[in-house]
Amino acid sequence: MHGAMETSAVLIDSLTKTYGSGQSAVTALDHVTVSFPARSFTAVMGPSGSGKSTLLQCAAGLDRANAGKVSIGGVELSLLNEAARTRLRRESIGFVFQSFNLLPSLTAAQNVELPLRLAGRRPAPQVVKAALAAVGLADRTRNRPGELSGGQQQRVAIARALVTNPKVVFADEPTGALDTGTSRDVLRLLRTLVSDHGQTVIMVTHDPVAAAYADRAVFLADGQIAGAVEHPTAETVVGHLTRFDRVA
User: Fold this and answer.
1) CB-based contact 216:43 (threshold 8 Å)
2) Which of 83, 86, 132, 216 could join 137 in a cystine, given CB atoms 3.0 to 4.6 angstroms apart?
């Protein structure tokens, strides 16, 4: 990798996160150090309870770590007050979740506008239309979520994540609620965001087929980095996950 690919969109250094205290304390992340290059697509994988979602939430500034550093676009989160952290999330980060998280009373266009309105910005109609067109829903701007399929709802959620032109998109099991064919459509769309539009995507997934759309798969086990695979295939990912099962 060279040029812009060497630039880290997200840099995590010795990140530690524990829940509870004393005898009942649980370490979700144990001195995790990993970087996510700009304009790359990374799948984060590992057994249940390995710390995948905790890593994503700490990396995105949704949760605070006990120790260590997270930098997004060169800005260290721990140095920001809550208002500045909120502003950074709104301006620099997009989120895509398994459950879509669309507001049922709003149209597709109004759902996409939401991050801009929350940031106190007046949404330009052409920007919202362009975001929906980018996910193949230019003709669905006036439809409410209940009038859309699951795959279409997830594409609205992706358009919403993109409308602020964020530095990085965090996706937590984005295909978990979708059937196989629809999942592939969403994964191809995420791949296009990176390849054609220069976005950075970090996706938590348990699905080896989903991971094969990424440039790299990073594996967690017991709250620690347990390896990485460049240009993953479903087969190489399954091989890594099987090793964890054997150890367990």
Assistant:
1) yes
2) 132
